[in-house]
Amino acid sequence: MAASAFVYTIHSYVPLLFIFIIVLFFSILIKKNKKLRSDKLEFDEMKRQLEESELLFRTILEQAPLGISIGDSDEFAKEFSPKFQPFNKTYEKILGRTKEELAGIDWKSITHPDDIEYDMSQLKRLLAHEIDNYSME
Predict the structure, then answer these.
(1) Could you please report the per-residue DSSP string of 27-72?
(2) Which of 23, 57, 63, 82 is most deeply buried (CB count within 10 A of its CB)?
(3) Is a pLDDT exceeding 60 seen at residue 113?
(4) What is the distance between the alpha carbons of residues 33 and 35, in angstroms, rounded to a whole number?
(5) pLDDT digit string (tens) for 63-88?
């Protein structure tokens, strides 16, 4: 009789255990869902900030009264003759070349031969973080 009472007791707790597991499972799902929603909101905000920053960058690049060209540092590191990346209309005008022409050449092609050695040494120093910037006339 004690054995049957024990079995009866176990059988009466099985549904409660099952319900507990289901409640636990759903509470975990709800917490994960809240975290995902929070992460999505954070992602959306970061995306908005990135788009805003990119718009500002493009506006400055396109409207600057100075000629601007941005080189790819990976290309600098590989062969020290990067192709031009973004550049503005003023840069095209200064060089007297179209964006299509500029897309197919590297900076050495438009640098005076007497300036290449100095420019390369400054570039190496820049990439080694010995200097923060440099410019040439």
Answers:
(1) HHHHHHHHHHHHHHHHHHHHHHHHHHHHHHHHHHHHH-SS--EEE-
(2) 82
(3) yes
(4) 5
(5) 999 988 877 655 554 444 445 567 89
